[in-house]
Amino acid sequence: MHENDPLWRLRHALAGVGLALLLSVPLAALLGAAVGDWIGGSYGWRAGTYAALLVYVITGAVVLFVKVARHETQRIGGPRLLKWLASLWLWPLLLLAARRP
User: Fold this and answer.
1) C-beta of residue 86 within 8 angstroms of C-beta of residue 16
2) In whole angstroms, what separates CA 73 from the centre of its chain?
């Protein structure tokens, strides 16, 4: 029964991108606060940087899921989750690497 369910087949990718996105929200908050303080030092700069980082990470989650979901078959563990997290933040490099012949 589970073999016919498309969400069941994508469960590893959904779990990986979901957990990586969940971990990225506080990471974006810390990074946004640090960069916002460094650039402008005001609440507006911190909030704007945090919002930009959230858009970046959410876009990365969508791109990463579309590119990797059908090939992901391994269970999520600690090292695998760190790989998902790193891929989520470095997704433009993954796109550039995919374009090279």
Assistant:
1) no
2) 18
User: What is the distance between the alpha carbons of residues 3 and 50, in angstroms, rounded to a whole number?
Assistant: 40
d(CA 20, CA 28): 12
| Contacts of 27 by beta carbon, 8 Å cutoff, 6+ apart | none
Q: Distance (Å, rounded) from C-alpha 55 to C-alpha 5?
A: 30
Enumerate residues 6+ apart whose C-beta is below 8 A from 89: 24, 57, 60
Give the relative orientation of helices 78-89 and 11-39 as an angle to the nearest 10 degrees: 50
The verdict on pTM exceeding 0.85 is no
Q: Which residues contact 48 (CB under 8 A, 6 or more apart)?
A: 36
pLDDT in single tens digits along all 101 residues of the chain:
567 777 777 777 788 888 999 999 999 999 988 888 888 778 888 888 899 999 999 999 998 888 887 777 777 788 888 988 998 899 898 888 877 66
